[in-house]
Structures are given as C-alpha cells and as structure tokens.
Inverse folding.
C-alpha cells in the first residue's frame, strides 16, 4: 500500500469538451480555439494572434460590398484544355475535380457593386481553384472587369491570391501576365484608380503582373508575397531563409506596399482611399 | 566560339565525322576519296534527317547549346555601331541584361537583351543570364529613353529565368517585371521581340511585350522550364522530356496558338553551326519587320500591341 493516495481521479478523455464539428475553429498559427461565431464576427481572423485565414471571393464580397449590391458577371467563361496537357493526370480531369470541389467557376470571380454607395468594378481570386492559378479564363475575366471599369467610369479593385501562372496552359498562361498588365495601362490612361489588395499567398506570375501594379497596393498582415516561392529561393541559395522573409511586413519595409490592412479595417480603408482618389476626377 | 560540346542526339554524326578524320590521316588517301565523299553525303543526309524530326526536348537542348549566339554576338554582327548603356540609375548595373543604341542597316534602334556567359567566369559575371530587378529597371530606363527620341526598340530574349535569390526578392523582382509589362504596353514606338534561345517565364516576358514577336526556329518559350515543370507536376526531376512535350514550348507550337508571329529559320544543325548565316537572316528579318512598323502612327502602335495580347488565351463560353 502506498503512502499517498490519489485524492483526485486521473483526467479522463471523456472529460474533454466534446466539440461538434464547426463550433470551434483552431488557429493554425497559435493553436487558439476560436468560437465560430466570434471568428465570423472577426472576419475569419484569429481572436488571439490576428492570423488571417484564407477566404474565398464569396466572403470578400460580403465584407466589402453594400448588402445585395454585388452582381457577379462573366460566369459562363470556363477553362478548356487547348494544349491537351497531361502530366500525372490530364488537365481536363484536374479541372473537373476543381469545379466539383470549389463553388467558384474559376480562379477569378468578377463583377461590380457598391462600396458605401459608390460603384466599383471588382475581381477576386479563389485560391481553392487549382491553387488560384492564372490561365486564360483568369486573364479574360480580369480583362473584361477592367474594360467594364473604363466603360462605366468606375475604379477597379482586385484581391489577389495565387500560386502563379497555370502550368497546364503553358505559354498561354504566361501571356495572361501581359494581357492583364496591358489592360491596366489602358485603365491608367483614363485616370481611374486601380487598387490591388494582396493576400496570402501571392507568388509567381500574378505577383509579377497585376498584383504589383496597383496605384495603391494593400496587403493583409503576414501574407506571403514574392516572385519565386520560398522553397525555390531556399534551393537557390542553399541557406535557411530569414524569419518573416517575403511576408507583408517585409515588403512594406522594402518599399513595395503602401500599407498593411487588417481585414476588419479593409472596407473602411478602401472606401476612404477610393473616394479620395475619385474626388477631383473630371467625368 | 566553338567548344567540343556534343549533344546526345548528334553523336552518330560526330562518330562519322571522326571516322572521316581518321581516314584522312591514312597514307593512301587518294584511294579512299570516293569513300570519304560518300560518307560526307551520308553525314549531311543524317543531319537533315535528325533536324527534320527533333523532339521538343532536343530543341530545348539546342537552345541551350554553349556555342549558340547570344545577344552581344548579334549586337556585333547583326547590328553595327553598338554603344552599350549601363545601369538602372538606382542600384547597380546588371550584366545579365545588356542594352544600348545601335544601327540596323543604317537605321537607329535601341537593342536590349538577356546576356549569358560562355565560360564559368563570364557566367558568374552574367549570373547565367538570370537578371535581378535592376536589370529589368535598366531595360525600362532604356526603353523610355528610346521613346523620348522616337527610336524603335528591339528586344532579344534568352534567359533561364529571372534570378530567384534573397536580394532579388528584397529589391522587388515581381514589381520590376510587372512594371515593365505595364510600361511596354504603353510605349509609343515600335517594339520587336525576338526569342533567340531560352524564353523562361516572367524573366523572359519582362522584356517581351512587343508589336511583333519573332522566334528562332530552335528556341523555346514557356511559363516554366521543363525541369522545373517536371519537379512540380511529377514531383521528380526525371520527367523533363515529357514536360517539354506537354508544355508545347517550341516555335511551331507557339505559332499555332497565336503567341508568336513568325518563325526565323536556323541553319541545319542549329544557329551555332553557321552563326554568320543566322546573323544575316536576323538582320534581313528585323529590317523587313521594322520597315512595316515604322509607318504606323504611334497611337495605333500602342493599340495594336494591347489588342494583340488581349486576344491571347483559349476558353469556352
């Protein structure tokens, strides 16, 4: 018989809070368990460490636009497989999977709506659709959204998140960098604001084209933004990368962003910037 | 310029050539002359045969041949009176991109191109033709200078990609390339692009927006190099041949998809085999292309260039 007797029972598994799916969300950055209702009120950011979760165009539209004012356009444009690209799996099958898994109809959603009563043309990338990669569809939708801005005298706002150009459309994807940049040079001649909001992650062909071309460039906190992905850079220099490399704060420090904006301030900041830039514009 | 570098698929040719050399060293060469002649015509037939049915990966290898003419070679032989202009006026001069004023058949042009090195020392100096942001910014400065004086621009593309290093990221590689795409889309002078070797992704496109896009027969142009494509999609470096096939990165492929306007034929065996011929061909082609563009009003030049890229892409609707 032991000298000491355990006065309390061991902690048993059954005593752990039994969480129904989706009532709490675990922060991947600080492991905080966030109550879903609070999480949604905080616009999908961590209540403890401000980690910005990746969200889709649907949520950004809810965050930015006056209720019910947003109209999605160009919904009938879909990707085809011009090169009959096959790697370990045919591109056409990857596309079918992507359409099944994502409720977006490609890596870019476009449309128009009002922010505090003022109309804007809008484009938002969906990282969930083939890694938010830019192929012909993304380029064409972007082009049409910019054209709409010119036609209707509206500012053009873009939310970027992308792994880069879509490899399965090869050179056609590469040319979308040129296509999107070319229409932005036309937009600039009309003195219409182009605002780029860069979110996690934005690399490759998208960062090296329209994401980095905003009259004003905003980014969400701690977003990965760069030309080459961190793994490629690491392989090139054969050294570990410094802490915070290619994050929003790093880009701000090096002069490539105008500002870092917390998601809950995004609507107000954008509204303020747009109304200021448009104030003296002669119609 | 000639090295002893031999491409794998050219080995049968080289073997026959060695055989002829051996025969020529024999004492009674006059008796062998008919045999030698027969072998020589056989070699020529073999070369024509090999070069008539190149795989995409083989073309990539020719585009990377260490003897292939680079931008400075064209500047010395296709053009005359070249004066190199250095620096981005902000940080440093990037030797991976060269540029300056020159004459093409007596007419002033601004020529800008990627520059690789020929040996280890010059390759280190040229960073293997992989530009840093200051290279793209130098290119932009020279283009704006050309526009100011109504000088047409010619860009020669030949890069394995923009440099993916820490400092390149710190100085804004993505921004530097993006800015060039925007600026080139609005320049009021004619721009002719010619891919002379490797056209790897944004690093090539960063000086690649033009009214006319030309491509040497054995160069390649795509969104990614076949090796990197293999490592990402197949998760192994071993599928570069398949990746090259899938990417459809050759001049005939790109012509078919409306990405380039014109293929410039190379001598059989590649541009490096008869460099003087390719220098001359390029001079003739560029002169002809420039003659057509120079009569177009600047406003229409900009419109034509923007429309050209607006029309690129394939989708269903």
């Amino acid at each position: 018989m032991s000298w000491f007797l355990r006065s309390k029972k061991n902690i048993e598994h059954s005593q752990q809070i039994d969480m129904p799916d989706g009532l709490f969300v675990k922060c991947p950055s600080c492991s905080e368990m966030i109550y879903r209702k609070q999480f949604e009120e905080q616009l999908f950011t961590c209540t403890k460490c401000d980690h910005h979760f990746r969200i889709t165009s649907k949520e950004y539209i809810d965050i930015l636009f006056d209720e019910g004012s947003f109209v999605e356009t160009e919904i009938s444009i879909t990707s085809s497989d011009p090169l009959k690209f096959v790697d370990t799996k045919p591109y056409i099958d990857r596309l079918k999977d992507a359409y099944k898994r994502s409720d977006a109809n490609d890596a870019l959603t476009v449309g128009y709506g009002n922010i505090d009563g003022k109309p804007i043309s809008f484009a938002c990338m969906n990282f969930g659709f083939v890694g938010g990669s830019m192929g012909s569809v993304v380029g064409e939708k972007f082009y049409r959204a910019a054209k709409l801005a010119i036609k209707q005298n509206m500012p053009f706002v873009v939310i970027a998140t992308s792994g880069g150009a879509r490899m399965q459309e090869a050179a056609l994807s590469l040319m979308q960098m040129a296509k999107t940049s070319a229409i932005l040079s036309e937009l600039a001649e009309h003195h219409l604001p182009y605002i780029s909001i860069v979110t996690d992650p934005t690399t490759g062909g998208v960062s090296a084209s329209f994401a980095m071309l905003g009259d004003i460039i905003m980014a969400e906190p701690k977003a990965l933004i760069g030309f080459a992905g961190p793994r490629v850079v690491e392989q090139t220099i054969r050294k570990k990368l410094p802490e915070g490399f290619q994050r929003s704060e790093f880009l701000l420090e090096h002069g490539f962003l105008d500002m870092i904006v917390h998601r809950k301030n995004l609507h107000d900041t954008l509204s303020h910037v747009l109304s200021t830039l448009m104030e003296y514009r002669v119609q | 310029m000639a090295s002893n570098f031999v491409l794998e698929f050219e080995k049968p040719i080289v073997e026959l050539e060695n055989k002829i050399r051996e025969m020529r060293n024999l004492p009674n060469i006059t008796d062998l002359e008919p045999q030698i002649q027969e072998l020589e015509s056989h070699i020529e037939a073999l070369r024509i045969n090999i070069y008539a049915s190149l795989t995409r990966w083989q073309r990539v290898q020719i585009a990377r041949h260490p003897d292939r003419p680079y931008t400075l070679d064209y500047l010395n032989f296709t053009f005359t009176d070249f004066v190199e202009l250095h620096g981005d006026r902000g940080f440093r001069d990037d030797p991976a991109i060269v540029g300056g004023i020159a004459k093409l058949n007596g007419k002033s042009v601004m020529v800008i191109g990627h520059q690789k090195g020929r040996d280890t020392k010059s390759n280190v100096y040229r960073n293997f033709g992989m530009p840093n942001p200051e290279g793209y910014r130098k290119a932009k400065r020279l283009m704006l200078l050309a526009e100011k004086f109504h000088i047409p621009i010619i860009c020669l593309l030949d890069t394995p990609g923009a440099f993916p290093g820490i400092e390149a990221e710190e100085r804004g590689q993505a921004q530097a390339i993006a800015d060039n795409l925007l600026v080139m889309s609005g320049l009021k002078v004619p721009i002719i692009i010619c891919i002379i070797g490797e056209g790897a992704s944004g690093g090539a496109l960063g000086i690649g927006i033009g009214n006319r896009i030309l491509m040497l027969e054995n160069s390649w142009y795509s969104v990614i190099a076949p090796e990197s494509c293999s490592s990402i999609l197949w998760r192994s470096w071993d599928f570069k041949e398949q990746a090259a096939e899938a990417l459809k990165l050759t001049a005939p492929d790109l012509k078919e998809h409306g990405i380039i306007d014109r293929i410039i034929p190379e001598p059989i065996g590649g541009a490096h085999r008869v460099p003087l011929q390719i220098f001359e061909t390029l001079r003739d082609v560029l002169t002809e292309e420039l003659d057509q563009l120079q009569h177009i009003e600047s406003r229409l030049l900009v419109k034509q260039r923007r429309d050209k890229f607006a029309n690129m892409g394939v989708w269903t609707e």
